[in-house]
Amino acid sequence: MSPRTSTADERTRRWGRWAAGLVVPAAVLAAWQLASSTGVFTPSQLPAPAAVLAAVDELIRRGELWRHVAISGQRVLLGFAAGASAGLVLGAAVGMSSVVRALLAPSVAALRAVPSLAWVPLLVLWLGIAEGPKIVLVAIGVFFPVYTTVSAALAHVDRHLVEAGRAYGLRGVELLVRIQLPYAAPSVFAGLRLGLAQGWLFLVAAELIASSMGLGFLLIDSQNTGRTDILLMSILLLALLGKAADALLGLAGRIPALRPQ
Q1: 133 pLDDT higher than 80
Q2: In a 10 Å sphere around its CB, with 0-12 CB exposed, 13-18 middle and 19+ buried, how is residue 187 labelled?
Q3: Are residues 143 and 172 in the same domain?
Q4: Class of residue 148 by CB neighbours under 10 A (exposed 0-12, middle 13-18, buried 19+)
């Protein structure tokens, strides 16, 4: 098979996957339109898709939509950076050292069981009601999936590879960067993607903390004002932004330099 034929087949398969991924959203959209137009739900319970698009246009014309999207994106980005960094560092320490694992793993496992909203009063008490507690809460949501995945992946790195690295004089951080992380890279990126998804979930809880901007605020405010069209728009935007962020991180995981050799 020629390289040109192989490339064409791969392109066909890629488009096939894209088309398959659109089947369920198209079916949901059709069911949504049918339910709203046949009176199964009232307009206040389930506005038609056209009404949600009208709400998008309304917020764009008022200059509000992009501000809400930008502030939520900023909170997730900062929280993800902080939480993923902490998860990578602590996960690496726990995964590489049985002593650190014995000391820290039980306590971290216990903290992981604390619900997201349970952190809110303490964060407000410590950090006030500005941006700090919102970003920290998102970081907490990101931290646990990254920590859990990284620590488990590094604890199960092939011992023969580790011994070979040590035979070549690699120790500590150099051994981690050159041998262990590349071997565990698929699991590490899976943990980062889980952490990013969790960060978007924690965002809504974070924006309950005295927020006046953001998609989480827009979601709660639309519920209080009876704007179901804006409520649905907020949910859809959170889904689309979360998917876009996950896709970008997935592309980063395909960079050859970041993949195991």
Answers
A1: yes
A2: middle
A3: yes
A4: buried
